[in-house]
Amino acid sequence: MDVFIQQLINGLTLGSIYGLIAIGYTMVFGIIGMVNFAHGDVFMVSSFIALICFLLVTTVLGITSIFLALAIVLVVAMFFTSLTNWAIERVAYRPLRGSFRLAPMISAIGMSIFLANFVQVSQGPRNKPVPPMVTDVIVLMDNNGYQVTLAWKQVIIMAVTAVLLMGFWYLVQKTSLGRAQRAVEQDRKMAALLGINVDHTISLTFVIGAALAAVAGVMYLMYYGVAHFADGFVPGVKAFTAAVLGGIGSLPGAVLGGLLIGLIEVFWSAYFSIEYKDVAAFSILAITLIFMPQGLLGRPEVEKV
Amino acid sequence: MSDTRTAAPAPTAAPAGGAEPMLAVRGVKTFYGNIMALKGVDVDVHRGEIVTLIGSNGAGKSTLMMTIFGQPRAREGQIVYDGRDITKMPTHEIAHLKIAQSPEGRRIFPRMTVFENLQMGASVDGFGHFDEDLLKVFDLFPRLKERINQRGGTLSGGEQQMLAIGRALMSRPRLLMLDEPSLGLAPLIVKQIFDAIRELNRAEGLTVFLVEQNAFHALKLAHRGYVLVNGLVTMTGAGRELLERPEVRAAYLEGGKH
Predict the structure, then answer these.
(1) Under a CB-based contact definition with an 8 Å cutoff, are residues A246 and A253 in contact?
(2) What angle, rounded to 10 degrees, do the helices at B130-140 and B114-122 form?
(3) Which CATH number is associated with domain A2-291?
(4) What does the domain layout of chain B look like in residue ranges?
(5) How far apart are CA B136 and CA B247, in angstroms?
(6) pLDDT tens digits, residue range B64-75?
(7) How far is Cα A211 from Cα B70, in angstroms, rounded to an integer?
(8) Residues of B with Cβ-Cβ distance to A303 under 8 angstroms
(9) Which residue spans traverse the membrane (chain A) (predicted)?
(10) Which helix (H) or strand (E) covers residue A288, if one does?
(11) Cα–Cα distance between A284 and A270 in angstroms, integer?
(12) pLDDT for the residue B18
């Protein structure tokens, strides 16, 4: 039981990070029908931006309050990651709009390789560590020496994710920007007929997706304490799996899928074999695609016309 | 074009029609791939007029409506609105000139509620008159009020048609373009809609460009009409006058060609 609770906490933490990344996949797919293979690398870039910013804030500015430092890092990382993704869409995807369906996806794979290599060359191929940011731990249970703990950094990850998702939900459901975003997703031509600038709206989608990926990047850096140029790929593909499991195109589905993938991975590691945790996660991708291609909360392909 | 026959000048036309039309379509050619759908179309809509374009399926009526919005773009010719050449203007900017369209197939946002669909219509107007306009639309189509929180995709065809027209009206258009507003509606509701168009035109001077297969109602309502056949305007004249012409009666009114 205590192992179960501990793994539940760990799984939800990891799942929050996957969920934040998954939203970027699902939104972009929803609006332009493209799997953005570079999204995982955008997430990786954001953790490097966070790392650099964190070191600057703590050494150059000499800020000692870790929460203030984290808040600054979060805002800066969201800003620069969004800018990066905006530029990527502008140079790599927009010129290919109206081309054949696979063209932007191939471009995205190229962009993914470019980002990983750029970071490898400019930041070096080794793990980049940061000093531990938040180390306090709450002991929830002590069962003959096996402690069930809830780390403060886990609390931060879950709380920040929950708050941002609520803000994000409000943006998409209740504001005119979000309404324009959904309109373009549902009928691009009609949205234009009603005065919506489709190109801006698509850019906005990349910006929002990147901002959420940046939150995930900051949290990832804080949780594991390292950034690495190849760390975009596996978390990226897992977040993509999460988006597919939840039903690609569905925003609540992306969050649900993220949490499930996080839990599956962590429980598999704890009860079966940690070496095969990635196999477990990707088996879910295969199983979903074969037996339930619309995912848990996705809509079936056919729609009443 | 050589086979365009112009009827005598329309006596009832253009209550406020100045010399320069509000919308002028000049020699427009539109292609789908290599197929020419519009073969050089000329249409004028003057301020305060109701103009209708009739023709059978596949004549290019809806293509003309969409070409005015640049979807698809005219490959040749010119479209002038309010003295501005809009032939190459981006679609969303054309909408900001206060031209609204209720398009072919209605194109309701299926996963948005009726209310959200109407909000989308108001986006070019900046929501300054939202509540007032909403009441007007509900006045016109009380059915929409009952369905306000229902998703667009779950409405019946007739309700979607009402929503598409309501959405177009929410933008406070200066030129209202309606593509087959009578399609899929019960005769009583068609009458309601045509009465509403007439009333908007009379009371507010709204300019209306109407595409219809229902030629009888459309020509009775319109000040002027155009007949489109295979991507070419073959006849033009006052609405009631076209209604009298034997060719029009045979082809579009008495179960002739289609």
Answers:
(1) yes
(2) 130
(3) 1.10.3470
(4) 5-97+174-253, 106-172
(5) 39
(6) 999 999 999 999
(7) 34
(8) 110, 153
(9) 12-35, 42-61, 67-88, 100-119, 151-172, 193-223, 243-267, 279-297
(10) helix A277-291
(11) 17
(12) 52
**Which secondary-structure segment (H or E) carries B179?**
strand B175-179
- Token look-up 């306000």 returns B148
Domains of chain A, residue spans: 2-291
Angle at B152 between CA A296 and CA B200, to 5 degrees: 165
Of A194, A197, A303, the CB nearest to B121: A194
Q: At what angle do helices A39-55 and A233-246 cross, to 10 degrees?
A: 130
Kindly report the pTM of this predicted structure. 0.88
φ and ψ at B52, to 5 degrees? Answer: -120, 150
> Hunting for tokens 């595409």 — which residue is that?
B211
End-to-end CA distance of chain A: 51
Helix (H) or strand (E) holding A250: none
Give the distance, in angstroms, between the CA of residue A59 and the centroid of all CA atoms in the same chain: 28
Among the four given CATH numbers 3.40.1620.10, 3.40.50.700, 3.40.50.300, 3.30.1370.10, the one describing domain B5-97+174-253: 3.40.50.300
Radius of gyration, CA atoms only, chain B: 18
Token pair listed for A82:
């969004």
Flag residues of chain B having pLDDT under 70: 1-19, 254-258
Q: Between the CA of residue B118 and those of B37, B134, B183, B185, what are the distances in Å?
A: 32, 8, 20, 20
* Residue ranges of A 129-188 with Cβ closer than 8 A to chain B: 176, 179-180, 182-183, 186-187
Query: Which of B118, B240, B102, B238 has its CA nearest to residue B177?
Result: B102
Beta bridge mates, B207: B175
| Residue of chain A whose alpha carbon sits nearest to that of B104 | A190
Residues 261-280 of A with CB under 8 A from B: none
User: Alpha-carbon distance B70 to A256, whole Å?
Assistant: 41
Look up tokens 């799996």; give the residue: A241
> How far off is chain B from A186, nearest CA to CA, in Å?
6
pLDDT tens digits, residue range A32-61?
989 999 999 999 999 999 999 999 998 888
CA dist A169 and A158 (Å) reads: 16
What pLDDT digit, counting tens, does each position of A204-217 carry?
Answer: 999 999 999 999 99
